[in-house]
UniProtKB/TrEMBL annotation:
Enzymatic class: oxidoreductase
Name of the featured protein: 3-hydroxyacyl-CoA dehydrogenase, 17hydroxysteroid dehydrogenase type 10 (HSD10)-like
Keyword set includes Oxidoreductase: yes
The entry's keywords: Oxidoreductase
EC number annotated for this UniProt entry: 1.1.1.35
Pfam family, one: adh_short_C2
InterPro entries linked: NAD(P)-bd_dom_sf, Sc_DH/Rdtase_CS, SDR_fam
Signal peptide: none
Amino acid sequence: MKLEQGMAAVVTGGASGLGRASAKALADAGLKVAIFDINDEAGEEHAAAIGGTFHHVNIMDEQSVQDGFDAARAANGQERVTVHCAMASKRGKTIGFDKETGGYKRLSTEDYAFGAEGILVASYRIASISALGMANAEPLNDDGERGSITLTASVAAQDGQIGQVIYGSCKAGVNGLVLPMARDLMDLGIRVNSVMPGIFATPLMLGMKDRNPAMWAQLNASVPFPKRLGEPEEFASLILEIARNSYINGHQFRLDGAIRMPPK
């Protein structure tokens, strides 16, 4: 798919980290980018910097997401590229030790359901609402292509660590969406893929650099090559290639410097 000047894109979680880098890369390629985020200040600042638009969107609320797409389409036109980076989740072991009682406690079903909503259900929500808009748009090329949707999974989908029963299983679910959704949408010319980033230098991870330099050095050394955390711009580079290359469809990409996560 040729990324034309003025083509519209939507990036969730575009105010920071991987989403922020993706939004900038798409804007640099000439696209009009709508950032969906709940961080108004950072989102508005970044949207202004890249010549895009910002929309306060809670990915866990159906109406908020629909309103966001409606506003983005009114401002920029029908999105042809959607990149979903936003998520919400909790952490905990299936069964853990409770210091207060001296016994064991179970990770609550409610906590698990929160993560499933914030990762898996939200991914379906974003992808399906975007796909409906794309389905009603004119094809962009002789292949009949109408758009590209990229979801963000994680290496935890395959290498889930201790305490990641919610995150790992729900990110695996994101990967599980890809092929059946790509096949659902094949006659409409809409591609669906996912990226599984490894350890990336996002704001959350960069905070460790000053707080715990030893742990920071250990994390960098744990990556086979290159021996460093991934740069958000490297994630964004893959996002651009997925959007551009019409033969990439129904695929899940590890982007991890060859790391394989240990149990903890």
